[in-house]
């Protein structure tokens, strides 16, 4: 299927919609207990059960509209199903909470493996969006790998030592804000290692 352009607002809504819905639903149901098939489930588990199909539907719509999904979107969807499903099956919210840690560890490991080979795997997925010289890609990849590792540690610390409310707030607001802030702080790197034609176009 050929890749097609999608309205940026619609794309953002499909990507963030499930997360926002999870946050709102959790806020309403967190203190409730639901008995299903003779087993009691917390509001967190019930919201997780609703989040999984919602995410899959939104991801499917995005694929139909754009004709393409990124590797990160595919991996995220798979891990949501696996770890969300385990949380529901074992009635244990810890599986779903550790899912971000697995994602960040995986991508940090992949980027780190590429760096050891002298390659920037990040450039394979972002080169069309951010044109940089090869040296710039290596620097950015190191920073992104360390950033992912830092997010993995932060997620582990928060879900293991803090309340579920704190983790939900971290996942809903902390992670997106940290990601946006990180890339905003790379402005000088983008400028220093921009391709020659990009520099000329900006003059």
Automatic annotation (TrEMBL):
UniProt keyword Transmembrane helix present: yes
Location relative to the cell: Cell inner membrane
Membrane topology summary: Multi-pass membrane protein
Keyword entries, A-Z: Cell inner membrane, Cell membrane, Membrane, Transmembrane, Transmembrane helix
Pfam families: IspA
Main location: membrane
InterPro entries in the record: YciB (IPR006008)
GO cellular component terms listed in the entry, alphabetical order: plasma membrane
Residue ranges crossing the lipid bilayer per the database entry: 12-29, 41-65, 72-90, 102-122, 143-161, 173-195
Protein's job: Plays a role in cell envelope biogenesis, maintenance of cell envelope integrity and membrane homeostasis.
Record family assignment: Belongs to the YciB family.
Protein name: Inner membrane-spanning protein YciB
Annotated gene: yciB
């Amino acid at each position: 299927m050929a890749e097609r352009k999608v309205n940026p607002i619609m794309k953002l809504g499909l990507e963030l919609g499930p997360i926002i819905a999870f946050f709102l639903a959790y806020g309403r149901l967190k203190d409730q207990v639901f008995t299903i098939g003779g087993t009691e489930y917390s509001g967190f588990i019930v919201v997780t059960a609703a989040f999984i199909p919602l995410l899959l539907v939104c991801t499917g719509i995005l694929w139909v509209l754009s004709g393409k999904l990124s590797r990160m979107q595919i991996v995220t969807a798979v891990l949501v199903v696996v770890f969300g499903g385990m949380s529901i099956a074992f009635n244990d919210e810890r599986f779903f909470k550790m899912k971000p840690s697995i994602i960040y560890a995986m991508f940090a490991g992949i980027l780190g493996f590429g760096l050891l080979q002298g390659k920037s795997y990040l450039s394979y997925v972002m080169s069309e969006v951010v044109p940089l010289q090869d040296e710039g890609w290596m620097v950015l990849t190191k920073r992104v790998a360390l950033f992912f590792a830092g997010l993995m540690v932060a997620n582990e610390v928060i879900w293991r030592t803090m309340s579920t409310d704190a983790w939900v707030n971290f996942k809903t607001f902390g992670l997106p804000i940290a990601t946006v802030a990180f890339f905003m702080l790379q402005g000088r790197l983008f400028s220093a290692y921009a391709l020659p034609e990009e520099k000329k176009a900006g003059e």
